[in-house]
Write a structure and sequence with these properties.
alpha+beta; 2 domains; 3-stranded antiparallel β-sheet; 3 strands; 12% strand; globular; binds zinc ion
Length: 139
């Protein structure tokens, strides 16, 4: 019998009465999303929704191995450009863009879940760097 802690998972069904609530006994393993990769399918007993344990993560429905997705994300975190990341990791630009979008959405959801009740009096945004394209030549 498999002994894993499922308390970190929550029902993703927006119509469920316990949507987004972690630590409930209503999330149980329910077969496999991919048995060869060891990805469990979970079921919310409150509403009957089945979902992958990777739902809502950058790995959900990914064709690439998780280690390669982590490599791509690491290049992006270090500030490597999208096209350069694609060349270095041997994937297309669209793949890099898709992984960047999914990782960003996941990071935002993680941040919204973890950072609460912070009353900031002063915010410094000087650590954020971005490339801004120049459309016209300076005269
Ligand atoms: Zn549910």
């Amino acid at each position: 019998m498999e002994k894993r802690d499922w308390s970190q998972f929550a029902c993703p069904n927006p119509h469920c009465q316990v949507v987004g609530q972690r630590g409930l006994p209503s999330i149980r393993p329910h077969g496999w999303s991919s048995k060869t990769q060891g990805i469990r399918c979970l079921r919310c007993t409150a509403c009957g929704t089945n979902f992958s344990e990777r739902h809502g993560t950058p790995l959900f429905r990914a064709q690439l191995p998780p280690a390669q997705i982590a490599d791509i994300a690491q290049h992006l975190v270090e500030g490597t450009g999208m096209r350069a990341t694609g060349r270095l990791c041997g994937v297309s630009l669209n793949t890099v863009l898709r992984i960047a979008l999914r990782a960003g959405e996941h990071a935002q959801a993680f941040h919204d879940q973890q950072v609460r009740h912070v009353q900031a009096r002063q915010v410094q945004a000087d650590e954020a760097w971005a490339f801004v394209g120049k459309k016209r030549q300076a005269l």
